[in-house]
Design brief:
About 60% of the residues lie in helices and about 0% in strands. The chain is an all-alpha fold. The longest helix is centred in the C-terminal third of the chain and has 24 residues, at about 145-170. It starts with 12 loop residues before the first helix and ends in a 16-residue tail after the last helix.
Length: about 200
């Protein structure tokens, strides 16, 4: 069982309306958002932040943002967010070869040098202690402008919040997310862990 049970999707009408955003990104409203409804101001603020962070205002594609989210979540070990990020990357048109080889992004030729720089940034920024350094900065600025780097940092920070929320809450993982995670991450050891509703 999770630390706090999610509420009904109909609990807060304003959250429900805002959460339609997730029907596009994931195909369902996440249990994390349904849990946040215990304090509707949090669920609404979170959804609006999510929408702002994931808006495309430069060359950072929706698929790359979700791959950044996956690398960030992998660094912190949140199985729930790993599954959500890979599902959203799939739904937003990440190349099949990238989805199949996300674990090897640094060495696989399915990833451009610009994408590798972005994903290295995500990994360094998500570690504790943080490992963003002059080399990461130099490589980022070869490929991306300031606004695009801010978009990436927004994704990394959003998932820092989500990683802590979902791993601490032991949020039950939804079937659709499990399906995507098993498809792309199962061969390299992804499991539900505490997010299966019975191990927490």
């Amino acid at each position: 069982m999770p630390l706090v049970n999610p509420l009904s999707p109909n609990h807060d009408p304003q959250t429900k309306e805002l959460a339609e955003f997730f029907n596009e990104t994931l195909g369902f409203c996440p249990n994390s958002v349904l849990t946040m409804q215990h304090r509707p101001a949090i669920s609404k603020a979170f959804i609006n932040l999510n929408k702002a962070v994931m808006a495309n205002e430069g060359r950072v594609s929706s698929a790359l943002k979700r791959m950044i989210a996956w690398v960030s979540s992998n660094a912190t070990g949140c199985r729930y967010c790993q599954a959500h990020a890979i599902r959203a990357a799939e739904r937003y048109g990440a190349k099949q070869e990238q989805l199949d080889n996300i674990w090897e992004y640094r060495t696989h030729n399915a990833f451009s040098e610009a994408e590798k720089a972005a994903l290295d940034f995500a990994l360094a920024a998500s570690q504790v202690p943080n490992t963003v350094n002059a080399d990461i900065k130099k490589e980022l600025h070869k490929h991306w402008n300031d606004g695009e780097i801010v978009e990436m940092m927004g994704v990394i920070s959003l998932f820092g919040y989500l990683n802590r929320w979902n791993d601490s809450m032991g949020t039950d993982i939804e079937d659709g997310a499990v399906e995507s995670a098993e498809k792309y991450l199962g061969e390299v050891g992804w499991q539900k862990g505490k997010h299966d509703g019975s191990k927490y």
